[in-house]
Structures are given as structure tokens and as C-alpha cells.
Amino acid sequence: MTPESDDELWSAIGDPSRRRVLDLLVRRGEASASWLAGQVPFSRQAVSKHLVVLEQAGLISRRKQGREVLYQVDAERLDQATRAMAELASQWDGRLNTIKRLAEAAHAQTRAQTQEHEA
User: Fold this and answer.
1) Which site in 46, 63, 95, 102 is 20 to 30 Å from 40, CA atoms measured?
2) 104 belongs to a structural domain
3) Alpha carbons 56 and 53: distance in angstroms, whole number
4) 66 — alpha (psi -120 to 50), left (phi > 0) or beta?
């Protein structure tokens, strides 16, 4: 994944409404914008805008069936996104553990210095 595609991905999944649309597509497999609009508390126009963002991020694709456009999740891209999020979570866990160790060491040092001064 490139930094640009990462940005598109985080932007796409950062919005709760888009995550809801993506979840509906994951569960249903394939759906039209009209069907999706009937499942969420926002307009068909809003659904269409969310679908564009999800498609630009590569999370969904579309196919035309007659006059209707059907959207489906790109399973490979969703898997890549899941792995990228897991990697990012792991990196942040490491950073937070480092911060915790540093804070605990500073606290222990301060406590030891306080005890020396009191003695």
C-alpha cells in the first residue's frame, strides 16, 4: 500500500456512515444504492457519495446489471486494509508500551529521590 492509498483507506473507513454501508455490503454481498439507502438513516444521495469514497479507496467495486448498478466489497482490498490496521495497532501498542515503561521509570526515580530527601 502507498501513503496515498493509505490516506484514502483511513478517510474511507474513518466515517461511521461509510463503515455502516461497508458492513451492509459485507453482510449482503451485493446491493444497489437504493437498497442501501433503505437500510440507513440518510438519503440515497448521501449513500451515493459514500459509495464513491469507498470505491476510490478500493474497498468496493461496482457492476452494471441492466439499468441497475450493484456494489460489492473487494475482499482482497478489505483483507489488505485489515492487515494494515493490525500492523498499525501493533506499532501503536509498541509505542504505548515504551511510553508506559518511561513513565514508570521516571515515577520510580522520582519516588526514590523523594525517599532519599526524607531520610
Assistant:
1) 63
2) no
3) 5
4) left
Cell 508506559: give the residue.
100
- Residue pair 30/15 in contact (Cβ under 8 Å)? The answer is no
Does residue 2 register a pLDDT over 80? no
Could you tell me if residue 48 is inside a domain?
yes
What separation, in Å, do the N-terminal and C-terminal C-alpha atoms of the chain show? 58
Amino acid 119: pLDDT: 67
Q: What is the pTM of this model?
A: 0.70
Cα atoms in the Cβ-side hemisphere of radius 13 Å centred on 79: 3
Over residues 31-51, the mean pLDDT reads 96
pLDDT exceeds 80 at position 61: yes
What whole-number distance in Å separates Cα of residue 62 and Cα of residue 84?
24
Residues 6+ apart with CB under 8 A from 60: 22, 25, 51, 54, 71, 72, 73, 74
pLDDT at 1: 55
Separation of alpha carbons 65 and 32, rounded Å: 10
Range of the domain at 15: 3-74
Q: How many domains does the chain have?
A: 1
